[in-house]
Amino acid sequence: MTLTLPKLPQPGQRLGRYLTEEVHDLPEMQGTLVLLRHENGARHAHVQREDDNLAFGVTFPTVPQDSSGVAHILEHNVLMGSQRYPVADPFFTMIPRSLSTFMNAMTAADWTTYPFSTRNRTDFFNLLSVYLDATFFPLLRRESFLQDGWRLEHEVAGDPSSPLRLGGVVYNEMKGAMATPGSVLFRAFGKALYPDLTYANNSGGQPSAIPTLTYEGMKAFHAAHYHPSNAYFYSYGTLPLEEVLDAIEEQVMSRFEAQTLDVSIPDQPPFNAPRREEVFYAGSDLERGSQVAVGWKLGPVSDPRENLRWSVLSDILLGNPAAPLMQPLIDSDLGTSLADVSGYRDSYREGAFAAGLKGLPLGQTEAVEALVLETLRQIAEEGIDPELIESSLHGFELSSREVSNAGFPYGLGVMFGMVGSWMYGGNPAGALRLEPELTRLRADLKAGPVFEPMLCELLGNPHRVTLTLTPDPELTARTEAEEREQVAGMAAALDDAGRARILADSAALETWQAQEPDESVLPSLGLDDVTRHLPRPDYGEEHLGSVTLGRIPQPTGSLTYLDVQTRLPELTQAQIQALPLYAAFVTKSGAAERDYLALARRIEAVTGGIGASVGVGHAPGSLDNVRLSLTVSGKALARNDEHLRDLLRDLLEEPQFTDARMRQLLGQRYAALKSSVVSAGNAYAERLAAAQVSRAGALQESMSGLTSLERIKALTTPDADLTKLLGTFGEITALLPRGETLLALTATPQDVGLDLNSLAQVFAQEGHTAQPDTLLLGHQPQARVTDSPVNFNAVAWQTVPFAHPDSPALLVLTRLLRSEYLLGEIREKGGAYGAGASLDSRAGVFTLSSYRDPQLGRTFEVFAGIPEFLASGKLKANHLTEAILGSSKTLDPLTSPDTVGRMRFFGDHAGFSTEVKEDYLARLLTVTLEDVNRVAGAYLTPDKAAYATVTGKDPAQDGGFDWVVKEI
After folding, report:
1. Distance (Å, rounded) from C-alpha 310 to C-alpha 306?
2. DSSP category for residue 364
3. 9 Cβ contact partners less than 8 Å away, ≥ 6 residues apart
4. Can you give the pTM of this predicted structure?
5. Are 347 and 190 in contact (CB under 8 A)?
6. Is 180 in a helix, a strand, or coil?
7. Which residues are known to be catalytic?
8. Which stretches in the chain have pLDDT values below 70?
9. With contact defined as beta carbons under 8 Å apart, do 317 and 385 qualify?
10. For 47-84, what is each residue's pLDDT tens digit?
């Protein structure tokens, strides 16, 4: 149904103290952009389009002059109490009392932003009020600085004879972040290319430099940056613009006058000659843990013409395995995959382009540099195949037309697509209007070469850095020793007053953390705001032989989405273990008459991408009924829908795997998984815990956990024999037609009639499904040791299936534990960056975990303290209401035309129909505190608990368990 959208102002029209400066049609997204400026200098961009998801963000240019993490620590503190909402942590308190589809804040290299989105009008203005008061009128208490920034504290609280140590949420967060190779490389890349600018600093905070930040310095940074004259406001959706502006005027603008602020970033003085630099990270893989990247500084990213051209050229050179720069890099066998900073980057005021390799042995700097430079010279001399250019332009055309909430709210994606250029002086309309620039580029291409001269200019640009990232097995020990020396030096410099201040700060922080805040001052929604009826998008169903086809008409903006899901028959253990590799590799190898290079070129030329994934499913009423499925999905412009169909048929019917390509893909897979351990260790720990109690959990861990990483490592040795794996892949291909297959076609009503008979014929025989045979991991605490200065801890229990009457109460319990217990004990008191509780309601697995946690044994004591917490009587009726409110969002997630219909189609065929989910929602809304206490006592018992940790130290020193320890 088409909505009647509010009337928008015209250029030159005043709305209160705002002047409408520009109005632009955005036909690619069927929207309109309005640009306004307030009398005090604030800028506001409003995008109006028909979307029930409303979005807002306020962004401040922040230009730190050191690596103390002032912008990042301020971001945390801003959200920890304000004049109107003086509770200790309004941000985390609002999460359960809101129906938000996104809430967060984030610090980039030169800006800090506070975005949210929601589908509820009341919720929008509730969150707007909290965000505005937080950013412009924060309390910035000393206690919040000590908690979330950094502090010196005694290891035994209140005991001055015990050793001192450094603590703080951001301090521990950045210790974990800077243990990630990609993070180290990215920070070093900015410093190497822009050594005289703010990008030379670590805006998140270098752990060794964080203790140089003072409380007064943080407050001064807020005063210098968080002012409307330095603010960029953004709103999106169907709300009347004047209502949003009136709220901002009343709550913020009326209290400020214009102010001159200098947060400008100058041009980086150009280098006279290329440079080389080397940085180190805490890693022990000397055989293939290095990276080398060759990078150049380019021109201002605020120029939409140059920004698009470099984006397209980067995609041409590196966008797929057959790309003319990527292919020689990978085929060189020097490394396994592209370096983490490869490609065009517009996240600096002046752009950057880089190319290189990771998965390298030591000493490959000169070889990678020479390969990159020589390959670029060859491409510039020989020219770029026009078909490659056209394929890349096709991809940009598709992306400009796609409107999707899959993975991230579209309304906020629009904001992030324009905010950088906007702050650097560009016009937001230029960042959002891609098609005019594409038309201009096509015209220039007809007139003569465009990209070859760009490459020649790049090669002649002396502002170049070759950056080497090297693992150092001793770095962790040295860093810990330096931290001890730093603490010792700080302790030695203390006088009596300083020592007394540490005790007083600890006592004040403990008192502040123990207080019971008056959360009633915060706005909230009620259970009446929960939607009782879930979306029921129409689809037509038909049978093509043994295949069930769902045709789903949706306003997809001339895109077609096609999904093929096969629920698998009997599989051997070898086939189960190979299945995730099959899914990861099938779209990156060859198919039918095309080798992997030809296939990659074809996929880019006629589709928006094709991918495959493995699913572990259940019936709603049973945890024993586990099933495995393989889904292959793709999207394309409607004019190419037949090509998409034919490519999916080729991939499913005639995939081509070769030994040489398999070795490349295994190396890339291993490098990606290995680097993810120290950034997503909590997910790996949760899988290790779940694998001890759940069949589905054991399958997931075996296929995508640390067990699979261990298998892949063995397959990447030079002498590894891949004959067996290739044979298993062939067996999986032969098994697919014997499964039960569903096709889902999502397209506009005029395009939904695509003939799919040729694709369905791949599955001509009657199919069936079978239970995968799997064994639980031994029920003994599991520890995996890796290069990490922080811990990731988890505990899991098997509970009940989705349809069981107790499942809604368990889901509510996760929200209560997270907001009312774990955040306080593990994040605020324990110093971890994150603490969570979750229920996989379909697998029936209940999990608690911590993220970038300096504690090990203490955290497991907190997990064990759940019965005491529940018996304390601290949970009240309002907490229950908020937990139910937050839980309801899992039943009604944010969708868009590309996802809403296929979710219903596949859900109906899995037993999770709209009616089944609405019944769950109805039971959820009647959960009581008595129910919560009962299910906790029934299911979360110590004898049924399974424990796991991913850590950087011997867990026996601090774990409290008899761990099974393995090195990663």
Report:
1. 6
2. -
3. 15, 20, 23, 34, 36, 241
4. 0.94
5. no
6. coil
7. 75
8. 1-3, 959
9. no
10. 999 999 999 999 999 999 999 999 999 999 999 999 99
